[in-house]
Design goal:
- Helix 1 packs across helix 2, helix 1 packs across helix 3 and helix 5 crosses helix 13.
- The strands form 2 sheets. The chain has a 6-stranded parallel beta sheet with strand order 2-1-3-4-5-11, sandwiched between helices.
- The protein contains 13 helices and 12 strands.
- The longest helix is centred in the middle third of the chain and has 16 residues.
- Strand 8, helix 12 and strand 9 form a beta-alpha-beta unit.
- The radius of gyration is 26 Å and the shape is elongated.
- By secondary structure, it is α/β, with parallel strands linked by helices.
Length: about 325
């Protein structure tokens, strides 16, 4: 492997001069820098980042830690799109993707993972707020941005989509359509996002007296949503619209309605949330409220860098947008 000593020998400059030139120090003149950098290129020199980091005291490396790289990736993957979004804004940090699989990581704490990889901070996504890993990250000295987990202190904050706005958008469309019987499918109770959804739903229900609103737990799962709606229909219940707080659950609702020979949207409408890629390819195409997953990644990494650099930040709630397609049909 080529070292700075080899460059020093080739150019005749001292090792310290070569090092400072390669690190672009201002006390080395531009002509000398050009000669040294040309020699480095000709020799095929590759800088030792670990040694460089030890000298600077900064690794300039952050982690994206998720536990959501699983079989659901075959349908769509929130984690991947957030991760890719982290590269869509200008910054000088390297980003390492870490898939937290409890089979391999359960014996390692958040701090141990950070130390082993010399990370300066992390974006954490895909966990429930009750997970011990989340508690460790929250209590750690390492700067951390949570995605969809509303924890904050001096070293942590969070980024999430604006669920209050999402519910208002959905309910406004339901009002305009003249629907009275509304069935809302929520996720699993342990999820911070589900608790947040229930808070905004409860506020809405406390002010709404004209609608019949039923809540079913679909656990953010296509199969579970199919089962609970199948049971719901078999017991004689009906709804004008199913408002599904994930598109995966909407897919399960489609299956249950098809089983019971109920037409979408002629007899009942379906409204989703997320705007996963396949939603526009369903039959009928799914009307949904879109999260901007890439924007979540962009905002998360910029917020994390602010924390690493010692700046104060506030939690970020990001905009959502209605994608009107074929599964929603007004009655008036």
């Amino acid at each position: 492997m080529v070292s700075i000593k080899d460059i020093s020998k080739k150019t005749g400059y001292a090792v310290t001069t070569v090092s400072r030139a390669l690190n672009n120090h201002s006390d080395v003149n531009e002509n000398t820098k050009a000669i040294i950098k040309q020699a480095a290129e000709e020799l095929g020199y590759v800088p030792n980042l670990i040694a460089k980091n030890l000298v600077s005291g900064s690794s300039k490396t952050i982690g994206f830690i998720t536990n959501k790289l699983d079989k659901d990736s075959l349908i769509d993957n929130f984690a991947v799109r957030v991760f890719l979004g982290m590269f869509e804004v200008e910054h000088s940090y390297e980003i390492i993707l870490i898939h937290y699989d409890s089979r391999y990581f359960s014996s390692k704490s958040f701090d141990e993972i950070m130390k082993e990889r010399q990370l300066e901070g992390a974006v954490v996504q895909g966990f429930d707020e009750a997970d011990i890993f989340v508690k460790q990250a929250y209590e750690s000295k390492y700067p951390t941005i949570f995605v969809d987990i509303g924890f904050e202190n001096k070293t942590t904050s969070y980024v999430a989509s604006d669920l209050s706005k999402a519910l208002n958008i959905g309910m406004d469309e339901i009002d305009k359509a003249g629907f009275k019987d509304v069935c809302i499918l929520i996720g699993k109770q342990a999820s911070f996002i589900t608790k947040y959804w229930l808070e905004v739903i409860d506020r809405y229900i406390s002010q709404e007296t004209k609608k019949n609103i039923e809540i079913l737990e679909g656990k953010y799962s296509e199969e579970k949503a199919f089962q609970v709606v199948d049971d719901y229909l078999q017991t004689g219940h009906k709804a004008d619209i199913y408002f599904c707080l994930s598109d995966l659950m909407a897919m399960g609702v489609y299956r249950a309605l098809e089983k019971h020979q109920i037409s979408v949207p002629n007899e009942v409408s379906v409204l989703g949330y997320d705007d996963i890629i396949v939603s526009k390819y369903l039959t009928p195409k799914l009307t949904t409220i879109a999260q901007n997953w890439e924007k979540v990644g962009q905002t998360s990494v910029l917020q994390l860098i602010e924390l690493i650099e010692g700046n104060e930040i506030t939690p970020q709630l990001l905009d959502v947008e209605l994608m009107m397609r074929e599964s929603f049909k007004r009655r008036n």
